[in-house]
Amino acid sequence: MATPSPEGALPGAGPPAPSHNIALFFHGFFKVVAIVWYWICTIVSDSFVVNFVVCIVLLALDFWVTKNITGRLLVGLRWWNEANDTGSAWRFETLPEGVRQVLPREKRFFWTACMAATAHWILACIIAVFGLSSYIIVAIMGLLFSGSNLWGYFKCSREAQADLKGYINSTSNTLMQGAIKQQLNSAVSRV
């Protein structure tokens, strides 16, 4: 009787990919703590300076952990910016397929958390613009931090780019087919 292979292991392909539970925890932890602090900080403290500093430190910790640790461990991607006298250049790196062992659940969690955090900060900016929050600068910083990580990792991942192109193509095909059907139905109904 064959035993089921662990997640990430192919039958006969050697040892399974290592699980990075601590990296998964901190990838989500700093995002959640920064978001929760943003929404409850005025309840905890009346000082704008204290609330601002705590939130920016939490955002910076999330940015650093995502950029320097969880991106490498969970999805095998890395990005950075090199600055010199002539300007700056973005660098994107993907570990080769033979070297990289990525667990599907870790990859899903990584991308979901990055996209959800960025979506949250976009929503927080919109809410702050309409005057429901006086912490617009914090929301903008959250969007810059989480958005730059999402953009950097998206540029690293050929797979993510291919998935987005496939989604756009299928959505545009569906929309075009719907528009064509609507035009045909309209033309037929006039006859």
UniProtKB/TrEMBL annotation:
Lineage: Eukaryota, Viridiplantae, Chlorophyta, core chlorophytes, Chlorophyceae
InterPro entries in the cross-refs: TVP23-like
Keywords: Golgi apparatus, Membrane, Transmembrane, Transmembrane helix
Pfam families in alphabetical order: DUF846
Compartment(s): Golgi apparatus membrane; Membrane
Name listed for the protein in its UniProt record: Golgi apparatus membrane protein TVP23
Family: Belongs to the TVP23 family.
Broad class of the protein's primary localization: Golgi
Membrane topology summary: Multi-pass membrane protein
Role, per record: Golgi membrane protein involved in vesicular trafficking.
UniProt-listed GO biological process terms: protein secretion; vesicle-mediated transport
Transmembrane segments: 46-65, 109-129, 135-154
Domain of life: Eukaryota
Cellular component GO terms, alphabetical: Golgi membrane
